[in-house]
Amino acid sequence: MALELEGTLRQKMGVQSGTSARGPWAKQEFVVEFPDGNFTSQACFTAWGQDKVQELDKYQVGDRVKVSFNLKSREFNGRWYNDLQIWRIAPAGEAAPAAPAASAYTQPAAPAPVAPAPTLDDMPADIPEDDLPF
What we know:
Layout (H helix, E strand, L loop, with lengths): L1 E19 L2 E14 L2 E10 L1 H7 L7 E13 L2 E13 L43
Antiparallel strand pairs: 1-2, 1-4, 2-3, 4-5
């Protein structure tokens, strides 16, 4: 599941790194504050891989960012853990990638028909036996 969120970079944790059976790895967690109705909320994201950690280095606390991420969950000893793994971070307000050009096999969508506005002649006539006030 791919999601996007725009907000303010509030905190960057230290880079964690190590070596696994598949080779070296690196990750860095960071917090983004975003509007949530009348209030603000915060979410902690993970930048996995040296390339994502380097991409995160371009941004400072207080910068407005747009984060594209996947939501992952896993179970360990009967408890569930969620992870928001980014796959892209960009300055907030950056235009979305251009939509692909229409292929020769697609038809452009027809505009929806618009009904005319009602007039006084469209209103129902008064019925004398109807004594309801509304």
